[in-house]
Amino acid sequence: MAYIPFLPDCYFHIYNRGNNRENIFLEERNYEYFLRLYQKYISPAAHTLAFCLLPNHFHFLVRFKGEAEVPDNKPISRRFANLFIAYSKAINNTYGRRGSLFEKHLKRKLITNERYFRTLVVYIHRNPQTHGLTSDFRAWPYSSFPLMNQSTNEFLNTADLIGSFDSLEELLQAHISPPDDGIFEFGGW
Q1: Vertex 143: Cα angle to 185 and 103 (nearest 5)
Q2: Long-range CB contact pairs, 83-87, < 8 A, 24+
Q3: Tens-digit pLDDT string for the chain (189 aa)
Q4: Would the pTM count as exceeding 0.85?
């Protein structure tokens, strides 16, 4: 896969998993801490439209802000490095482990069309059910799905998300009968 730079005002699917497919979230407080670090390091430079954290991997759909919108000039790659370093240190210290927690390279896909964008939102939210972690993806607590119904929240850019589906009702309907067109292949994640 060719290297794709982080570009301002573009949508990206960001994902990664634990080194050797190990769990990166071991208990509830780990998920919460990761999201706090995400807000600290990534949110100042990105609008988050969807996310899901699973025991051994995560997915985010983001639009990176333009330079004028970002309070400092830290590169996106440095922001992600800071997030992963801070989180890995905390996990290693708390659980007495050593070494890399995440796979070496953060994965990213540039979203180039509306079909991919819309399918990706549903894919991200349904991921816990796809992996057999819950019988109903709507009940998964570490996903942005429950936040979509909130008109105001500090974490999710619901206006852009809902606008991409024309209405909240259309967005919710897309989750009920998602397309099965093979658009996503992540090597068995």
Answers
A1: 50
A2: 83/37, 83/38, 83/40, 83/41, 83/42, 86/37, 86/41, 87/24, 87/33, 87/34, 87/37
A3: 567 888 899 999 999 999 999 999 999 999 999 999 999 999 999 999 999 999 999 999 999 998 888 888 889 999 999 999 999 999 999 999 999 999 888 999 999 999 899 999 999 999 999 999 999 999 999 999 988 877 667 788 888 888 888 888 899 888 887 655 555 554 444
A4: yes
In which order are the strands placed within the sheet that holds 57-64? 46-54, 57-64, 11-17, 107-110
What lies within 8 Å, CB to CB, of 124 at 6+ separation is 50, 51, 52, 59, 60, 61, 143, 144
Based on the number of CB atoms within 10 Å of its own CB, is 105 exposed (0-12), middle (13-18) or buried (19 or more)?
exposed
